[in-house]
Amino acid sequence: MDRIAIPRPPRPLRILVVDDDPAMVGAITALVGTEGHQVITAYDGLTAVKRFREESPDLVLLDLAMPGPDGFTVAGQIRAAGQAPILVVSGESAEEAKVRALGIGADDYLVKPFGRAELLARIAAVMRRADRGSGPGAAGGTPEGAGAGTLQLGALALDTGRHEARVGDARLDLTPIEYRLAEALVRAGGDLVPHLRLVRAGWPAEADPDLLWLKPHVARLRRKIQAAGGPEVLAVRGVGYRVEGP
User: Fold this and answer.
1) Please, are residues 166 and 173 in contact by the beta-carbon 8 Å criterion?
2) DSSP string, the chain
3) What confidence tens digit (pLDDT) does each residue in 156-179 have?
4) Using one digit for the tens of pLDDT, what is the confidence trace for 50-70?
5) Of these four, 129, 166, 206, 244, which has the most CB atoms within 10 Å of its CB?
6) What parts of the chain have a pLDDT lower than 70?
């Protein structure tokens, strides 16, 4: 049987591994260490948030069940403190837990037990999406022939060259995924963007992105836009989303 070709991030990473099981932390450390990544460890929620703020890791591998604040709480606090991707690594396989974690701010979800190849592939995929989203003009869903510049729909304006979003003078603190979703919606000029087209804009590196990822990210984008006084992001049940025009 041919060996699996494992995708790799373009650079060594500093990874915060959060799990209350020392054996699991050791196993993950060994697995990612073979790829040259540096591991920062935390065995409870309070330490995890503290280490994140002190160490500014490139990626967080986060368990959900742990002493003190659980993984859902930690994910929310980490997302509020920075934009490093969060890969949940949990023994909980229920869809409800996955949707809740993604809604709070996780970028992907891996169910225990897992193999080395899957862990490394998911790390590479999460970092690839983050790196593409953080580069100039890297938003997905850009039509052919569309150049860098300013896109505007009502009070919501996007600078595609600087990868920034504003409502009036207020700059929106969007994640790379949220920015790509916002750009796809604004480019539609108020017209409906179907679910499939929108999820492909949000996750351009994924061959088959899961539509379940879409709702929580759009919900956070909607809250940020409306909190700044921008137009409403409207859901058309079972079809897609659109931004209310001027």
Assistant:
1) no
2) -PPP-----SS--EEEEE-S-HHHHHHHHHHHHTTT-EEEEESSHHHHHHHHHHH--SEEEE-S--SSS-HHHHHHHHHHH----EEEEES---HHHHHHHHHHT-SEEEESS--HHHHHHHHHHHHHHHHHHHSTT--S-PPTT--SSEEEETTEEEETTTTEEEETTEEE---HHHHHHHHHHHHTTTS-EEHHHHHHHH-TT-SS--GGGHHHHHHHHHHHHHHTT---EEEETTTEEEE---
3) 999 877 788 999 889 999 888 899
4) 999 888 888 999 999 988 889
5) 129
6) 1-10, 131-149, 205, 246
The one-letter code for the residue type at 139 is: A
Phi, psi angle pair for 178, to nearest 5°: -60, -40
CB atoms within 10 A of CB 246: 9
- Predicted TM-score (pTM) of the model is 0.57
